[in-house]
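Aim 2, interim progress. The first record below pairs a target sequence with its structure tokens.
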Amino acid sequence: MSSPFVLLRGPGWKLPEPLELRDPLEVLEVKADRPGDLPGLLDRLDAVARSGRPELLAAGFLSYEAGVALEGSAALFRPPPTPLAWFGLFDLRKAAEPGPPSPVRPDGFDGSFGLRSGMTREEWSAAVSAIRAGIARGDVYQANLTRRVVRELPVPARRLADLLYADNAVPYAILVDTGSVAVVSNSPELFLEVDLATGRVASAPIKGTVARTAGGSEEAARALLVSSEKDAAEHLMIVDLVRNDLGRVCTPGSVHVPALRSVKSYRHLHHLESTVAGTLAPGAALT
């Protein structure tokens, strides 16, 4: 078992980057079978954020299943193969600049993934039918049906993070190595940002994607994305969902959409992105 560390890359973090964090002052972890411990971890993160100590940084992850547990959907909860949550509390004064990345593909890895689905077509169809039935009953109005895909890679997590970022330098790249589990993310999307000084809360959901040169050119691809009725409808549905979520923790009337369906371009893809913002209500927890 290795020592835990976190590697941050990309301008979205608003930190000196790239940044490598080691030797955590404290480790906060919620095991997969202990969802009842999540509120305590979130309270600790909230206390760190409000501590007035800018040298402290909590870095880690919340699993997708943590959201299900926190919403009280016990019937839908399935323990993940990772911790429900893991965060290291680091001293930024001890952060180091990581060594040079290793973008060269190692022997035995040609860049293809050969992914195996964790769900059969029959299981997928059954899940779709269950969601439709739930919508008809009024249990939900929108659901995100996901599946887990698996591939054994002849690549250490650190090398995989290097390869992904070298191929597509996104605003939010992170590698979290807990010592027993590694999570690699290379994302263009801002999930949530809170400015403690002003109380501003913002999220920048992405929905709607097209290959950078679809239709023969970048200009054609962007036009194709902007004119897509399907992408527009799905995007607005996500924006409304984020508006609703922020409305639960923001001052009434403060939630607004300063940017709607902007086209953001990266190395391989164009995305539709909006910004939803509001003012955190007095007494609302950051987590």
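The second target in this work package is listed in the same format:
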Amino acid sequence: SLAVRDLPSFLSPSNTNKAAQAVYQELMEFLREESNLKILVNTFDSLEPEALTANPNIKMVGVGPLLLAEVFSGSESVKDLA
């Protein structure tokens, strides 16, 4: 289950940023009304299959990795990848 610390800070009850809360609420209302909802998720299908299928009303599509393995292996510099 989610705890308050797991949520973005602008969703905290102590947050006074009403504009951010209004935008988020509008987004959630839009998503609730969408019948064919798809969300891109930075993960692998084989890494988190249960998470990607946890909500039957949302088609979550794994699009990871978003960075090439070379970025982490040190074989190429980030400049060379651009």
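The chain has a mean pLDDT of 80. This observation will shape the mutagenesis plan for the next reporting period.
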